[in-house]
Amino acid sequence: MNNIRIAGNLVGVPHPYPESEGRWWVDHAASERSRRPRTEYILAITRKKEDLMIGEIILSEVDRIHKTASLVYWVAESCWRQGIATEAALAMMGFAFRRLRLRRLEISAFAENTASHNLALRLGFTYEGTKREAVYAESTGKVHDDSFYSILAREYFSTWAKRPPPGTRLRNAQRGAG
To answer: Does domain 4-176 have CATH number 3.40.630.30?
Structure first.
């Protein structure tokens, strides 16, 4: 996480990333596991044959009344362009739509974050628009336009229902962080 190319695309993530912030995040992830009803599912992304955290996928702002949530992710720069974020996102989407029975998922990404825009579209999300100067990146001190994407449960099932479940190992963040 202590990489400006990652932190620079995330809201609320400082750079450099202090160890105390990492400890707080792991404690937060652990406390979310016992919260009822859960409003966040924070999972580490690991390589299939290693027990090393290489990213994170989060289902946040889970609203059980409106049946919606947001999908947030990051992957270590050394793992970019390997399909890891795609596989992790598909696994979390399956959990959100099949197990939690949500109706809609959303992704937001800084307007200049081309990789996240491409990932959202590859996953079947629809571009909904951009809020101008809507978010502040603590790591860079810059204000960004924020682009929004969504996918509905019926769209997910018509596109992904017959494909085999992805094999990325997702673990609770507190067990995967090292």
So the answer is: yes
